[in-house]
Amino acid sequence: MSASKNNHFTRFIKGKIIIIFLLACFALCLAWVVSKVAFRQMMVAVENIVEPNNKLRLVNELSRQAARLDQLQRARLVKNTRKDFFYESKKTALIIDTLENLYSGDSVQLVRLQRLQKLLGQRDKLFLSYLNVRNKLINDKLFTLQVQELNNLLDKNAAQDSSITHTAKTTVTTIYPEEEKDTRSFFSKLFGKKKEPKEAYKVVNEELNIERDTIAEAIRDSLTRVMSNAVMQLEKNRLRQRALFVNRENIWINANDKLISQIQAIVKQVESEVVAQAETNNNDARLIVSGSVKKIGYIMLAFVLLTVILLYFILTDLSKSARYRKALEEARDEAEYHSKAKQRFLSNMSHEIRTPLQSIIGYAELIKDADKPQKHDIEAIYQSSGHLMQIVNEVLDYNRIISGKFSFSNEVFNITALLNEVISVMRPQTEKKQLELISNFNTTDKRFVTGDPFRLKQVLYNLLGNAIKFTTEGRVTLSVASILQGDKWNYTFRVTDTGKGITEEDINRIFNEFEQATGQPAREKRSGTGLGLAICKELVEQQGGNIHVTSKLGKGSDFTVILPFAAAEEPEYTIEEKAIDKTDDVAVWVVDDDSFILNLCALLFEKHNITYRSFQSPTDMLNAEWDDKVKIIFADIRMPGMDGKQLCANLRRKVPADVRIYALTAQALPQENDAILSAGFNGVLIKPFREKELLSLVNVKDSVNSTDVALLPNLSAVKQMTYGDEAQLNAIIEKFAEDTFSDISALKVELKNGVATNYITLLLHRMAGRTAQIGATELAAKLKAAEYAVEATGFKDKNDDILTLLTELQNLVTRLLKATANSTEMA
After folding, report:
1. Phi, psi of 213 (to 5 degrees)
2. Domain 730-826, what fold?
3. How far is it, in rounded angstroms, from Cα 240 to Cα 252?
4. How far apart are the C-alpha atoms of 89 and 69, rounded to whole Å?
5. Where are the beta strands (DSSP E) in 456-526?
6. Does the UniProt entry include the keyword Nucleotide-binding (predicted)?
7. How confident is the model at residue 688, as a pLDDT?
8. β pairing state of 556-567 and 448-451
9. CA angle 695, 701, 706 (to 5 degrees)
10. What is the rounded CA–CA span in Å between residue 9 and residue 7?
11. CA geometry: angle at 591 spanning 587 and 597, to 5°?
12. What is the rounded distance in angstroms from the CA atom of residue 809 to the CA atom of residue 647?
């Protein structure tokens, strides 16, 4: 198991290291991917920043073209460069078309460019018109021809003019008086002054008359009139051309200004867009760089955190591995030690069982050798057997013992009588070893307290038994002192001896489970299990007391127990001289596949005049006619065909609700009892049971006395129940032998040929219960342990152990039959 855990741990560590490596690779790959994507985005941003803006370039070109057109226009005024001008104009139009394609998604800019295109066309037209007007002004041939004609005329007439002329100048002055109405009133006219008349409007005409005396003069006059009209016409044309020129120039200048303003607006818009785009690109580049740095930082941080966490887990696992290794080593050592201790426990049984058993054997030998047995000897055997049976129950419930889950009763008892009982039980052992047993009590004869008398006896038996076992000569002393504090008696029990003593090292170990003093001889060490003092410690501490020991090697030991008990008044006992006849009140049914148990129950019921009916099969009970007097049913749990739980379920559907059903079983573990009660039983009667326990369930009091504690084991117990009736005793033993031999034969056949584990456990269960009831509790415990072992793991590897138990059981039955035959012959 340790190797398996180590392999699992090693795989776990390797897995974490592989995870760290994979995380590192993943982090590097992820960082590479992020860096690659970031650099690509940065390159795009840089290209966007570095790449010339076509819009701005074209707008700037458009601006330059506008300026160039303006220059060409001005140059056209000096030179005849119309061809270059139109070439540049077409080039400007192409630039505007390209800008329209670039701004295809911007409706505002499209409208602006279309207006610009229109303005450019209008400007070209206006410029052409302006040029035409200007050219006419500069190259006016009509005016030149007219002027030339006038010159020719003048030249021609100048040669012919030889007449004498008479010049007369006539001046005519015309005065236009202004009529003015007199708007004055009548009285103003009558009495007022007369207004001075305004100065009249005069028109002075001077006429120069030149008279020639010759005919040529008339011709000259006619020529003069023609020239005057021509000059006047020329003046009118010149004025009209000048006005048209000025008008066209103004229109052209306005169109040019509009075109320039539109181009400048577009330039500003594009420049603002370029600046905004450049800012956006710069921000994008910064965001890409900062985002990539953050992502890589997050990746590295996550990788570092995960690495730290995994390293922490690895270091934790390593530290756990060290702890587990140390714990496994300690557990291995402890398991090896406890394994040996438990082997001793299973082979030698409990020291607590052996101590009262020794008293029983000792007193039984005294009675066997005595002609008239003493009553106090029989009483000692009876009390020790009751204590032994309860110890067996504790041993069978081993899990409850080692976990400290003891059950304590709270009853009134005479502590002085209990102490005397303990002394009387232990005295035969001291006498056998020729030791002196001294009792020193400072209590009155009738000191009653409230507590658990059985647990107190269990502790004292253990301490006195150990003292006797490890003392070879001298004495063993039980001293009891008490102090009343309020309503409680604080008792101090001291068990001292003159034995070998205990070393300091062993003092710290003896209260541990399965621990014993290492300084004792091997023979003495093997006589115990090492559970006694551990159980004593638990019993004392859970009752609110404490236990400690002082010892010196070679000078004996001193065990001190301090326990509080509540003070109590003497109870009133009711002693029945004879059994109460319950024939008219109660009828009992019993079902068990073991005829020995049925015969024993029949004897007890007949003894107390109880109406009963026995069944050896659950089916027979279910098919039997119901008797309304039946109030109690005892049913065995493990029976062939149908177990007690199924029988209880069927009976609950058939019998009245007030009928009580009790389980009669040798299954003594608490979890088994809980399962039985949950199946519908009213209670559980554990095999081996006492007469008083059986009778208490049918509300019949024992006819012996009310202080009975337990039934006698072995043949003494059976004799106690039969009240010395040899015929009944022999019948019980014969039936026990018959059933046991039958089960042994069936079990041997099943072990050899069968595969039915359930049937094997059933046979072991029956023999264990029957053997315990006859009084052989030690052998019954072994059979019960074999039953649990077969039920848990099967019987294939346990045949030899089971056959050994069967041999031991056969010998027991043979001895019982021989003893019965000898007693019959003596009678």
Report:
1. -90, -15
2. Four Helix Bundle (Hemerythrin (Met), subunit A) (1.20.120)
3. 18
4. 7
5. 475-485, 488-497
6. yes
7. 72
8. antiparallel
9. 115
10. 5
11. 100
12. 31
At 174, is the secondary structure helix, strand, or coil?
A: strand
Asked if 341 and 529 count as a contact pair (C-beta separation under 8 A), the reply is: yes
* Amino acid identity, position 334: E
Closest CA to 573 of 702, 421, 393: 702
Confidence of residue 100 (pLDDT cuts 50, 70, 90): confident
Residue entry with tokens 């052998």: 779
pLDDT score of 565: 92
Contact 438, 475 (CB under 8 A): yes
* Residue 796 DSSP symbol: G
Contact call for residues 750 and 767 (beta carbons, < 8 A): no
Percent of the chain with pLDDT over 70: 63
Identify whether the C-beta of residue 172 lies closer than 8 Å to the C-beta of residue 207: yes
| pLDDT tens-digit series, residues 661-677 | 999 887 655 566 777 88
Q: Are 227 and 153 in contact (CB under 8 A)?
A: yes
Could you tell me if 479 and 537 are in contact, meaning their C-beta atoms sit under 8 angstroms apart? no
E strand or H helix at 348: helix 216-348
pLDDT digits (tens, 9 = 90+) for 380-416: 787 777 667 756 655 654 555 555 555 677 888 888 8
* Contact by Cβ (8 Å): 694, 601: yes
According to DSSP, the residues that pair with 345 across neighbouring strands are none
Helices (H), 370-500: 375-396, 398-402, 415-432, 453-469
Strand-pair partners of 496: 477, 558
CATH of span 349-567? 3.30.565.10
- Asked if residues 798 and 764 have their Cβ atoms less than 8 Å apart, the reply is no
Domain residue ranges of the chain, discontinuous segments joined by +: 19-164+224-317, 349-567, 587-698, 730-826
**Separation CA 246–CA 129 (nearest Å):** 12
**CATH ID of 587-698, from 3.40.50.150, 2.60.40.10, 3.40.50.410, 3.40.50.2300:** 3.40.50.2300
CA distance 333 to 339: 10
3-state secondary structure 722-785: HCCCHHHHHHHHHHHHHHHHHHHHHHHHHHHHCCCHHHHHHHHHHHHHHHHHHCCHHHHHHHHH
Q: What is the pTM of this model?
A: 0.37
Q: Comparing 616 with 381, which gets the higher pLDDT?
A: 616
